[in-house]
Amino acid sequence: MADSTSRIPLVHLTDLYHPAQDPDDQFDLATVLALPEYDLRAVILDTTERFRKAAPAGWDVNRDPGLVIVTQASYLIARAIPVAVGPEAPLTSVNDDARSRPSREQAGIELLLETLRAADAPVVVSIVGSARVLTAAFNRDPALVREKVRSVLLNAGTTVTRALEWNVQLDAAAFIGLWRSGLPVHWYPCATDKGAFDPKPERGTHWSASHEQLLAELSPSWRAWFAYGLSGSARGDFIGALADLGRGSVWENILAGRRSLWSTVSLVMGAGRGLAKTAHGWRFVPRSEITTQQLCTWPLRLDPISAKVGDDAQVAWSLATAGETSSRLFGRTPGADYGAAMAEALNALLRTLPE
Fold this sequence. Notes:
By secondary structure, the protein is α/β, with parallel strands linked by helices. 33% of the residues lie in helices and 22% in strands.
């Protein structure tokens, strides 16, 4: 475990639901918990109304914000994780501070602001859904947010002009407002010129792997945690379930699935790690160890960019000189084998989850 004084304070904004709308969010939360460099200060659940309601009024089935999944994780790591839910409807404009929303939808924004006020060092904010909570918080107290946000790990958007990417569609006004806030955005786009599922391009974050590979050899309790979330379990004894899920026919069905992931690399790089080939295979290794041990790496980088977002939520960007801008854009050595390396490294990381 990293020294407590050197750990990176993190607030994680995630569109985690139960049952899942997209189960990559549970993998992202597990990744955060497995990286000892992070001091997780809060999880804020980014919810959108249509995913809370069954069709035809909503999307497909009724869902709750993923409070139970976070609570189970708190139990397993033996530490309370502050968690709250944000507003359900998109911001009405780039300047909307969401104060008009119902009181039950204020908790997520207030938790973010309270966490920033209490922080004794700047905080990293990771966004794996919409930017709604962060932009609303900025609109309420821009001076605080500018002072206390170290960087924003933004997993959203596309590098080319095309149909809006999924996370941007969730709240286009919030996405625009975030870019126009002047906060230091580290941009990990979810789509490139060929869409959101291309594993090859230089700027692409997407990769995929089977559940069988990603979840191999996890401890029984964490298998049960994944089983509860990925199966959409309705068991009321959600702590008791951690003792006996993760095996049997439900688990076998889960292992037969496959998962697309986009945000892993942002969380790994935010923790100061890289992707390297060790004697034990591909691993997420602290950058200092990569240098000292001269390991073979899959190069990952953040390039300085000048960026401007239009009223249509399209980002126009160009490479810039370091020091001229606080915006950064993810880049990597192109190639489809990136996914195989990421899968091996993520499984190794998940096997270290504390309990």
